[in-house]
Design goal:
The chain is α/β, with parallel strands linked by helices and about 240 residues long. The protein has six helices and nine strands; from the N terminus they run E-E-H-E-E-E-H-E-H-E-H-E-H-E-H. Helix content is about 30%, strand content about 20%. A seven-stranded mixed sheet has the order 1-3-2-6-7-8-9, with helices on both faces. Helix 2 packs across helix 3.
Length: about 240
C-alpha cells in the first residue's frame, strides 16, 4: 500500500481520540478534510485528531483498467456486494490496521479510535473494523456495503473484540451506484451475526452525503468519543 501520505488534522487540545475517515473510489483524503474543518469552526471534537488516508492509484476494472485512487479493484457496478478483490481488500485492511496501531503507539486507547468512510472507503472500514484485533470505539460506513460476506467471519478474531462496538450506517434511498438494498442487506446480515447496527436511510439522497446525515454522524461520534478533559485510561 503506497498511496500518498495521509492528511492529518491534529487535536486542538490534548489528543485523546482519533477518527480515521476513508474516502471513496477516485477521491482523496482532501475530499473529506472539510468535515473536520467544519467541526473545528464549531468547537467540536477538540481532543480528536482526524486522519484522512489517501488510497494508492491502482487499475480499476470498471474504469477500463485505468489507474485511479482505490482501496481495492471493482469489477462491476451491477452487484458491488459480490465483486470482491480479496488481495486488494486484505492489503487495505492491513494498511488501516497499521494506522490504528500507529495511534495506539502514541498512547491513544483503541477504544478511543473510530474507523469509517464513504462508499468504497466505508466498505473497507466496515470490513477492517469488524475483523480488527483491537477493540475500537466505533465503526461507520456511509453509502457502503459488506465486503467478502461469505468469508468475513473467518477473518474475525476468535475473541471478537468488536462484537459490542456500535456501528453507524447512513445511506441515500435513491443511491444509483451503491444501491439502498445493499446497505439494508449489510445491516441485516451484521445484525443476524450479532453486531449492533444503526442504519439510517435519507430520503432523496443519491450517492453522496447530506447535512442531516453529517449531523447524525456527528451525534454518533460525540457519543463514541466524549470529551475527557484531557484524561484517558490506558487500555480503556
Amino acid at each position: 500500500m503506497s498511496g500518498p501520505a495521509a492528511l492529518v488534522v491534529p487535536a486542538l487540545k490534548k489528543h485523546t481520540a482519533t477518527v480515521i475517515m476513508a474516502h471513496g473510489l477516485g477521491d482523496s483524503g482532501a475530499g473529506w478534510v472539510g468535515l473536520a474543518e467544519n467541526w473545528r469552526r464549531r468547537g467540536k471534537f477538540e481532543e480528536v485528531a482526524f486522519i484522512f488516508p489517501n488510497a494508492p492509484n491502482i487499475p480499476i476494472t470498471v474504469n477500463f483498467g485505468m489507474k485511479m485512487p482505490g482501496w481495492y479493484d471493482i469489477t462491476t457496478f451491477d452487484e458491488l456486494a459480490q465483486a470482491h478483490d480479496e488481495p486488494g481488500i486484505l492489503s487495505s485492511r492491513n494498511y488501516f490496521n497499521t494506522l490504528i496501531s500507529g495511534e495506539t503507539s502514541k498512547g491513544i486507547p483503541s477504544s478511543r479510535i473510530v474507523l469509517g468512510g464513504f462508499s468504497q472507503g466505508g466498505a473497507i472500514s466496515l470490513f477492517t473494523g469488524l475483523t480488527c484485533p483491537q477493540k475500537l470505539g466505533g465503526i461507520f460506513g456511509l453509502s457502503s456495503y459488506l465486503l467478502m460476506h461469505t468469508t468475513l467471519k473467518t477473518y474475525v478474531p476468535k475473541d471478537n473484540p468488536n462484537k459490542e462496538t456500535p456501528i453507524f450506517m447512513g445511506h441515500g434511498d435513491v443511491d444509483p451506484l451503491v444501491k439502498p438494498e445493499w446497505g439494508r442487506r449489510t445491516a441485516e446480515a451484521l445484525k443476524e451475526w450479532g453486531w449492533t447496527v444503526d442504519l439510517k436511510m435519507y430520503p432523496g439522497l443519491a450517492h453522496s452525503a447530506d447535512p442531516k446525515e453529517i449531523d447524525d454522524l456527528e451525534a454518533y461520534l460525540m457519543a463514541r468519543l466524549p470529551p475527557t478533559g484531557g484524561e484517558t485510561k490506558a487500555g480503556a
